[in-house]
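Entry type: protein chain
Record version: 2
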Amino acid sequence: MSSPLQELTDDERAMLDDLGFDAEAFDRLAATVRAGTVPPNTVDGAVEPPRKGSIVPPAPTGTMQGDALKDAGRQLLDAGKAAVVVLNGGMATRFGGRVKGVVDALPGRSFLQLQASRLTAARAPLLVMNSRATDEATRAHLAGLDHDLDVLCFKQSGVPRLNPDGSLFRDEDGAISVYGPGHGDLVPSLRRSGALAAARERGVEYLLIANVDNLGASLDPALLGRFAASGADMMVEVAPKNPGDKGGAPARVNGQLKILEGFAFPADFDQDSIPVFNTNTLWLRTDALDQEFPLRWYVVHKQAGGRPVVQFERLVGQLSWFLNTEWVNVPRSRFLPVKTPADLESVAPELKRMFGTSLTVL
């Protein structure tokens, strides 16, 4: 079977190249599907829970250390040294085909509008990573808000889905099916789009990375102060697990503490032995990001149009494998994910507490 790259039309290839398509990586990954040699998602090596004391909560407000870190964080915010990057990619399928960021999280106020109102008060820029599926609606929504917020939108790359035999997947109309290859695409997209350079030109030294549906994540000055004082290139927010919680978590792999995705743990490892999980809220220094990171590609089996497809994704948490990383145990109130419309009901009381119940127009 020939390479699926040869199945692309000139127009399809031009569209993918415009998105920053990594043809070489795609061809290499597709070859493993065709040959039946796709590597397992599990990691190699000894996996152990984090050591006691390696992950600690923020210094309490009211203590000398806590107040000093909070003051330092406020000074950084006042100086324009921090910004938020919202991960707003995906295929816009979970909210009835609507882009989640533009959906109302509270009556009359969208996810992006609530995040923007908070950043307007903090005088911090907002960077938004969109996918091909979310970019147009997101830009139009932000343009329709009355605000003076400094907003930088940029697109992640796109990759065509494959059939299980490694050939190019096409839908009933004969079109290729392009997906965003995971939020591990963040750093390459920041660099390729010029958004990273633009943020640094504005004096931004620290980025808070958060999912668009997690309004618990904010530019907390105490956490910013702690991150800056640590000297680390990256800080990961983890939170205590509730019964039944699954997903990625910090684990020692061959002695190094890393974010490990739930599916990457060995089958015989007791994930309940780790009492915290990764919230996917990350702090990064901008001067540590202008480089290439060999993030791992994970295979994902999904359905598209009722047919099985294969796609490969990278995850941003794997930056912890390559950067000097600090770890902080935050309260669950900083983790309020809304993956489906049904989740909105459960987090609504906390959102009302955070943002108020009256209609706010930016």
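Comment: The first strand starts at residue 47 and ends at 48.
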